[in-house]
C-alpha cells in the first residue's frame, strides 16, 4: 500500500489504485512573479459537512500556499475562484448562461506581470448535457486565447486524437479548440524535461476515485504562449470526506510586465536613502 507523511492524509484511506508517485510535489517557490493556482471539485461539502470537518478542510487548503484556488459551488451554483493573495486583483467574473463556466482576469497590484485570464469550468457529467455545454463560442472563449488558464472538472478523459472512428466524450469542435490553443499543464513539463520518468508517470494519474473506479477528469490547461512558464504541476490526495477528487495545482513563473519606454512608470516616490535610515532615529524624542 502507498503510504504518506502528510498529516491531512490517512494512509488507510489512500486508494490501492493509486500508482506511485501520487504526487509530483513542487519545490517551495516564492517570488513577485510566481503564481500558484489550484483546482478542486468538492461540490456538496459546504452543504453536508460538519463545521469541524469544514474547518479542517480550510486549514488543509491554507497549508498549500495557493494564490488562487478554483472550487465548485462557491460563486455560482457550479463554480468559483478564491484569491488568497493580497497582491492580486480579480476582475468581475463573466459567466456563460448555465453558470458552469466563469472567467476572470487576474492582475498584480504593482503590475509585476501582464494580466492573465483564468477560466473555471465544471462540465455536466451527463453525456448529452456535456455535448451541448462544451461549445467554445457558447462559453464566450476567445478564438485565439493568450495568457489564458483553463481548468476545472471536465467530466471526461481528454484525448488529442480526434477521429470519426473514435467515440468522443466531448464535441469535436471543443477537442480541436483545446488541441490548437492549449497544452495540458502536466504535459508542459514533459516538453521541457524530455526524459523525466517521474513527470511521465504523472501524466495519466487518475484524478477521481470512487469505490473501485477511477478516472482522469480534472485538468489544468495553459494557452500555448505561457506553457514555458509552468514550473511545477502537482497532484495531492486529500481526505475522502472532503472530496473524491484530487487537488491539482500548478506553479507559474510569469515574466515581468512588458512596457514601452514611453509607458514605463516613474520612479516610486520614495527617497533612495530611506532604506539606509537607522531605525532608532524614528523615535520621537531624538
TrEMBL record:
Listed Polar residues bias regions: 1-18
Domain of life: Eukaryota
Source organism phylogeny: Eukaryota, Fungi, Fungi incertae sedis, Mucoromycota, Mucoromycotina
UniProt-recorded name of the protein: Endonuclease/exonuclease/phosphatase domain-containing protein
Residue stretches of biased makeup (Low complexity): 19-28
Annotated segments matching region Disordered: 1-30
Species this chain originates from: Mucor saturninus
Signal peptide per UniProt: none
Family annotation (SUPFAM superfamilies): DNase I-like (SSF56219)
InterPro entries: Endo/exonu/phosph_ase_sf
Amino acid at each position: 500500500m502507498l503510504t504518506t507523511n502528510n498529516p491531512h492524509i490517512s494512509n488507510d484511506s489512500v486508494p490501492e489504485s493509486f500508482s506511485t508517485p501520487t504526487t509530483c510535489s513542487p519545490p517551495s517557490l516564492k517570488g513577485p512573479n510566481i503564481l500558484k493556482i489550484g483546482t478542486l471539485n468538492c461540490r456538496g461539502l459546504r452543504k453536508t459537512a460538519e463545521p469541524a470537518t469544514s474547518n479542517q478542510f480550510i486549514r488543509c487548503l491554507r497549508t498549500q500556499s495557493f494564490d488562487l484556488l478554483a472550487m465548485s459551488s462557491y460563486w455560482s451554483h457550479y463554480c468559483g475562484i478564491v484569491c488568497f493573495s493580497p497582491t492580486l486583483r480579480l476582475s468581475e467574473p463573466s459567466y456563460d448562461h448555465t453558470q458552469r463556466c466563469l472567467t476572470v482576469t487576474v492582475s498584480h497590484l504593482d503590475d509585476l506581470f501582464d494580466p492573465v485570464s483564468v477560466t473555471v469550468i465544471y462540465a455536466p457529467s451527463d453525456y448529452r448535457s456535456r455535448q451541448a455545454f462544451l461549445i467554445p463560442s457558447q462559453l464566450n472563449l476567445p478564438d485565439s486565447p493568450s495568457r489564458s488558464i483553463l481548468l476545472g472538472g471536465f467530466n471526461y478523459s481528454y484525448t488529442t486524437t480526434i477521429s470519426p472512428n473514435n467515440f468522443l466524450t466531448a464535441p469535436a469542435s471543443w477537442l480541436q479548440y483545446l488541441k490548437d490553443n492549449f497544452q495540458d499543464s502536466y504535459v508542459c513539463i514533459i516538453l521541457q524535461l524530455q526524459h523525466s520518468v517521474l513527470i511521465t508517470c504523472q501524466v495519466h494519474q487518475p484524478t477521481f476515485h470512487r469505490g473501485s473506479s477511477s478516472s482522469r477528469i480534472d485538468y489544468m490547461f495553459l494557452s500555448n504562449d505561457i506553457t514555458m512558464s509552468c514550473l511545477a504541476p502537482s497532484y495531492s490526495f486529500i481526505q475522502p470526506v472532503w472530496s473524491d477528487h484530487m487537488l491539482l495545482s500548478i506553479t507559474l513563473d510569469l515574466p515581468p510586465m512588458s512596457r514601452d519606454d514611453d509607458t514605463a512608470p516613474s520612479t516610486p516616490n520614495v527617497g533612495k536613502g530611506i532604506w539606509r535610515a537607522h531605525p532608532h532615529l524614528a523615535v520621537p524624542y531624538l
